[in-house]
Write a structure and sequence with these properties.
This protein is α/β, with parallel strands linked by helices. It has eleven helices and ten strands.
């Protein structure tokens, strides 16, 4: 079986504590047709020195950019893989994930994009917030476009898509700061149903100063905005349910912050 070529992007900024684990989780899998491109926003914490140590096995740039979304669009434009995914510089892939992902796309030409399971871990890599993980996995196994409009249950580090699908839906909206991934998922979901690969593909790290953890209300507001932009005129009831879901999620996350979980 010939595996498709794979591009993985890592947008990065001042994550020297984590980025080497991210890099190793990509490179140590030994995927045979890999283009790995790290787009660093001009880190000053030692990240660039870590990247330089791997310069013979990946591509990287470092310098001021327009933010995470703009960096990803640059990576999309300058990469060559048939299949594309991205992993942020504080998350990491599970062993064997890339081979499993490549096999799905090789064996199932009808699959345009996929996602899989993604446990939440803390700063030290210990599993955290297991109730949220199980809740998301419940809906992952019961995917519908309508449900995705109500709530984002797809874990970004596990999403991979064909370049041809990206060409159809267009690049990330780089005016968004937190929910540009969800906006992209909704646009891809309008074109093709995703395939659920029922195995752990990646680990999503949550800690006090992480972007998602520290700005969860902004993230959920942006997700609501993304749903409205994509489908308000066609699915007003689902958008109303998404607004209600916003209050459910923000309440739940506030409670998690209070109990320290």
């Amino acid at each position: 079986m010939k595996l498709p070529s794979l591009t993985i992007l890592t947008p990065s900024y001042n994550h020297a504590d984590f980025i080497e684990q991210t890099i190793r989780s990509v490179l140590d899998q030994g995927y045979p047709a890999l283009d790995y491109f790290v787009l660093d926003g001009g880190s000053t914490d030692g990240t660039v020195e870590i990247l330089a140590r791997y310069a013979d096995r990946l591509r990287y740039v470092s310098g001021p950019d327009g933010g995470q979304a703009a960096a990803l669009n640059k990576g999309f434009a300058e990469s060559s893989g048939e299949i594309i995914g991205w992993i942020n510089s504080d998350d990491y892939y599970a062993p064997g994930a890339l081979q499993a992902i490549g096999a799905v796309f090789a064996e199932r030409p009808e699959v345009q994009w996929l996602y899989g399971r993604c446990p939440i871990v803390d700063r030290d890599g210990n599993e955290a917030r297991s109730l949220i993980t199980r809740y998301k996995e419940f809906w992952m196994r019961r995917y519908s476009y309508e449900r995705l409009l109500i709530e984002n249950f797809i874990n970004q580090p596990t999403v991979f898509f064909r370049r041809s699908l990206l060409d159809r839906v267009g690049p990330i909206d780089d005016r968004m700061h937190n929910a540009f991934d969800y906006h992209l998922f909704l646009r891809m979901a309008e074109k093709a149903r995703p395939y659920f690969l029922d195995r752990v593909l990646a680990y999503f790290r949550v800690y006090a100063d992480a972007k998602t953890s520290s700005n969860f209300e902004r993230s959920f507001r942006e997700e609501t905005s993304a749903a409205v932009r994509v489908a308000a005129g066609r699915h007003p009831l689902l958008i109303a349910l998404h607004h209600l879901n916003y209050y459910k999620l923000t309440t739940a996350y506030r409670l998690l912050r209070v109990v320290g979980r």
